[in-house]
TrEMBL record:
GO biological process terms held by the UniProt record: response to temperature stimulus; ribosome assembly
EC annotation from Swiss-Prot or TrEMBL: 3.6.4.13
Protein known as: DEAD-box ATP-dependent RNA helicase RhpA
Organism (species): Methylorubrum extorquens (strain ATCC 14718 / DSM 1338 / JCM 2805 / NCIMB 9133 / AM1)
Top-rank EC class of the record's enzyme: hydrolase
Family, as annotated: Belongs to the DEAD box helicase family.
Molecular functions per Gene Ontology: ATP binding; hydrolase activity; nucleic acid binding; RNA helicase activity
Upper taxonomic lineage: Bacteria, Pseudomonadati, Pseudomonadota, Alphaproteobacteria, Hyphomicrobiales
Keywords: ATP-binding, Cytoplasm, Helicase, Hydrolase, Nucleotide-binding
CDD domains: DEADc, SF2_C_DEAD
Length: 519
């Protein structure tokens, strides 16, 4: 089947040819004719299947007739995240080059005024995240009674993110006679209920869920302890020793870990950006642009922020945490090995991840090989180590829907450095557990800083760590100078000598300033 068989307009077909697409993807071939026939569509498809074009291409065709009126958008697309919304806007730009349509992006984190101006001009396509859309509505700046077509995208993500009450409110404000396109990667009962409620006699189109992972992706598990400092060290080693690493995404389960890990990597000389839901829109777009352009080769991201992002050709994926939902694993590692290219995916796993790992392996229908010894070889969690385990379970409770909740507290870091920069100690690679005395010796803080290998090519614009001989002389107090004493080298939370301030933020910088407080 070709695009020409689907009933799309000439202008859209031209744009598709310019985009270089030769044939429609299965979701496009199935959905487009029904959308053009003004049927409601229930599309079960993940990102990466071409589903955005499955609704943007027929929408462009349909919008060629008619005109937009001020503050009354003709079509509305709801997206769970700002990045996804921005990506849909990019799709309209790409496929709508031959059209003169007004497209407005209504997302949080950017000024209301510009968005208002666009709405006032009249909007053919309104792409929005639910919260900001309702804000505009409540300010009386928007009327949804002219919406002819409504798209609810990534419905299961909306559910995960707690947006369903907002969506229900919005749908009530849109005319009953509208056409509705509803997309979701999965169909849990709550989503089935919503689909029944929002859609009238829908056409169901479904493409296979990527429960299996591409054969071009080499997957490995890397056994590690559960503590952050050890995981960060293992990660650094993996990045440095990775073969053919051009760029990589590092996934964390929690937003606070994204921020902390990015700081830590930067302090160790890597060129890494962060992407998580608490960042403002400008910072998120800057991080993404830097990563897309290749300027910043490492992106530390949370699932929610990274979901559905169209980032071509990622050579490596690192799961700093094992995802709680097995589908997220498939989704994360699907960022590499795209379009027949080869890719590598490494997942750091500790003993507390065993259940999540088996859920992943049963979803993908195959075991994942360990890079260098399995969890039996991890020696940092000693049987009866109650305080650590209790802390682990409390952290698990603080995590909801893949990103931390507001109640998440700060974790305490232990300073014991692993015996080597290798993912596992020499002893562990021999497959045995170390005797207790040896363990306690190795787990005690080391006196000599671990010599870091030279930074690899992934950090082209990062300043190389200065050779030790050139490192700045540590500042000594007057009595120390008088006694000729030297302070031990400063260590960061990983027990290593950081670059600059490292990931440490002095307490005085965290104190509230009182600026901006309302009287
Ligand atoms: P999506 O699932 O909408 O995020 O699309 C994933 C990727 O597929 C994007 O990079 C699109 O540009 C690309 N794409 C969409 N439709 C086609 C097509 N028919 N042929 C080739 N690539 C496509």
């Amino acid at each position: 089947m070709s695009f020409a068989d689907l009933g799309l307009s000439d202008k859209v077909l031209q744009a598709v040819t310019t985009a270089g697409y030769t044939e429609p993807t299965p979701i496009q071939a199935q959905a487009i004719p029904h959308v053009l026939a003004r049927r409601d569509v229930l599309g079960i498809a993940q990102t990466g299947t071409g589903k955005t074009a499955a609704f943007t291409l027929p929408m462009l065709t349909m919008l060629e007739t008619g005109r937009a009126r001020a503050r009354m958008p003709r079509t509305l697309i709801l997206e769970p995240t700002r990045e996804l919304a921005a990506q849909v806007e990019e799709n309209f730009e790409r496929y709508g080059t031959n059209h003169k349509l007004n497209v407005a992006l209504i997302i949080g984190g950017v000024s209301f005024a510009d968005q208002d101006a666009k709405l006032t001009r009249g909007t053919d396509v309104l792409i929005a995240t639910p919260g900001r859309l309702l804000d505009h509505f409540e300010r009386g700046k928007l009327l949804l009674t002219g919406v002819e077509l409504l798209v609810i995208d990534e419905a299961d993500r909306m559910l995960d993110m707690g947006f369903i009450p907002d969506i229900e409110r919005i749908v009530k404000m849109v005319p009953f006679t509208r056409q509705t396109l509803f997309f979701s990667a999965t169909m849990p009962p709550e989503i089935e209920r919503l689909a029944d409620m929002f859609l009238h006699n829908p056409q169901r189109v479904e493409v296979a869920r990527p429960a299996s992972t591409a054969t071009t992706i080499e997957q490995r598990l890397v056994a590690t302890g559960a503590e952050g400092h050890e995981k960060r060290k293992v990660l650094r080693h993996l990045i440095r020793s990775a073969s053919e690493l051009q760029n990589g995404i590092i996934f964390c389960n929690r937003k606070r870990d994204v921020a902390q890990l990015q700081r830590s990597l930067t302090s160790h000389g890597f060129n890494a950006a962060a992407l998580h839901g608490d960042m403002d829109q400008r910072a998120r777009m800057a991080a993404l642009d830097g990563f897309r352009s290749g300027e910043v080769p490492l992106l530390v991201a949370s699932d929610v922020a990274a979901r559905g992002l169209d980032i071509p050709a990622v050579s490596h994926v690192f799961n700093f945490d094992v995802p709680h939902h097995p589908e997220d694993y498939v989704h994360r590692i699907g960022r590499t090995g795209r379009a027949g290219r080869s890719g590598q995916a490494f997942t750091l796993a500790s003993r507390s991840d065993e259940r999540s790992l088996s859920a992943i392996e049963s979803l993908i229908g195959q075991p994942i090989a360990w890079l260098d010894g399995d969890l039996a070889s991890v020696s940092d969690e000693v049987e009866g180590d109650e305080p650590r385990r209790r802390r682990g379970s409390r952290r698990a409770k603080e995590t909801k829907g893949g990103e931390e909740t507001k109640s998440g507290g700060r974790s305490t870091e232990r300073s014991a450095a692993p015996a080597s920069e290798s993912p596992r100690s020499e002893n562990r690679s021999r497959g045995g557990r170390r005797p207790a005395a040896e363990r306690s010796r190795a787990d005690a803080p080391r006196r000599d800083p671990v010599r870091e290998p030279e930074p690899v090519a992934v950090a082209p614009s990062a300043p190389p760590a200065p050779p030790r001989e050139l490192a700045r002389e540590p500042v000594r107090s007057a009595p120390e100078r008088a006694r000729g004493e030297r302070r031990p080298p400063r260590r960061d939370e990983d027990g290593e000598t950081p670059v600059g301030l490292g990931s440490h933020v002095p307490a005085f910088l965290l104190k509230p300033t009182g600026f901006g407080k309302s009287k």
